[in-house]
Amino acid sequence: MSQEYNIRKADISNDRLNVLNLWRAGGFSSKSIFDWYYNENTKNTLYVLTDKNDVILGTISYGIRKLNFKGNELTAGILGNYFIDKNHRTLRPALILLKWVLNNNKNNIDLFYGFPRKKAEALFKYAGLSKKNSIHRHAKIIKINRYLSGFNSLVSIIFSPSLNYLIWLRDFFKTFSLKKKYSILDDFDEGFDYNSCSKNYVISNRDYNFLNWRFIKIPEDDYRIFAIKDHASRMCGYVVYTIHSTNDVEIMDFMANHDPCDYKSLLLIFASYIRKHNINSIMLESYENSSVDDELKQAGFVKREGRPVYMTKNDNLFFDEDFFLTQFDENSRN
């Protein structure tokens, strides 16, 4: 006889300890992240899979993003916190939980998407999501020294200064004519509301309250804001980044107002600033998008490996539409 399973919306206060105990077995339990994600943003919804005695055996959540395409706004649900107890990791309970959430939220969510691990891709396919390109890692070298470490130290000593100078010179000529003022900020204000309407791709709306929650209020992480303005002091774009102990910069989100700024200019100006802080490289993740990829390439970024993005289909979008997604569009600490 097959096991009976039930699914319900989690009671964040009463279920908190049991959910954290379940997640702890998977190695990603954090009380502060849990409280930040579910108590400080009530639009994030958590569901639990239980047995007949209401013992929690699995979880899944979705967070809300507002997507804009050619002036049409869609409500998207980002799937995350998908976890099944190790004693119940068979196809049936995992699929029941995922399909239930998708089917029972059709009226308030236009589009679901997620970034499944390799082992979970089959589940996403069975549940009716389809692979929609990939989100790729991009890297830009600032200092070559580390990449010559495989050679003897003499080679590194001789060639590193010249190669670093050539890298700097290449960017210098690209940024020489870009007359923009930049600043490092502690938080976001009303000037960062980007209810973007793009003719070329689907993009998430940004507002300063959500940006502050996502990057400033998050515990256990330290994010910084680089913002640039044009000669008339209009907001031109921003980069949210963190500096790792390896002296590598990781960009978590970036946005440019294409009038008067583009992604290439934004990232070149940012690279010029960050080069002063003994940084080795800059990394970012961006959805596979031909126009954005071209600007990243012009800014000196090299595309690397990608992770698949799975989505449900929506009647208001052609499935081959381009998206602009960054780590802003992921659930933190899935």
Name the poorly predicted regions.
Answer: none
**In the CATH hierarchy, what is the class of the largest domain?**
Alpha Beta
Q: What string, H for helix and E for strand, traces the elements in order?
A: EHHEEEHEHEHEEHEEEHEHEE
Beta strand count:
14
The secondary structure category is alpha+beta
State the share of residues found in helices, binned by percent: 25-40%
The N- and C-terminal alpha carbons lie at a distance of 33 Å
Q: What is the second-level CATH architecture of the largest domain? A: 3-Layer(aba) Sandwich
Radius of gyration: 22 Å
Question: Do you know the CATH topology of the largest domain?
Answer: Aminopeptidase
- Major β-sheet annotation: 14 strands, mixed
Chain-averaged pLDDT = 86
Count of distinct structural domains: 2
User: Which band does the percent of strand residues land in?
Assistant: 25-35%
Shape: globular
Q: Quick one: CATH superfamily of the largest domain?
A: Gcn5-related N-acetyltransferase (GNAT)
Contiguous helical run count: 8
Q: Explain this structure to me?
A:
The chain has 334 residues and is of the alpha+beta class. The protein has 2 domains: 6-128, Aminopeptidase (3-Layer(aba) Sandwich), CATH 3.40.630.30; 136-329, Aminopeptidase, CATH 3.40.630. The chain is built from 8 helices and 14 strands. The protein has helices spanning 12-24, 31-39, 91-103, 121-126, 153-175, 208-216, 263-274, 290-298; strands at residues 6-9, 45-50, 56-69, 72-84, 111-114, 130-141, 181-185, 202-204, 224-229, 235-243, 248-256, 281-287, 302-311, 323-324. Strands 1, 2, 3, 4, 5, 6, 7, 8, 9, 10, 11, 12, 13 and 14 form a 14-stranded mixed β-sheet that branches. Helix 5 crosses helix 7 (263-274). The longest helix is centred in the middle third of the chain and has 23 residues, at 153-175. It is globular. The model has no long low-confidence stretch (mean pLDDT 86).
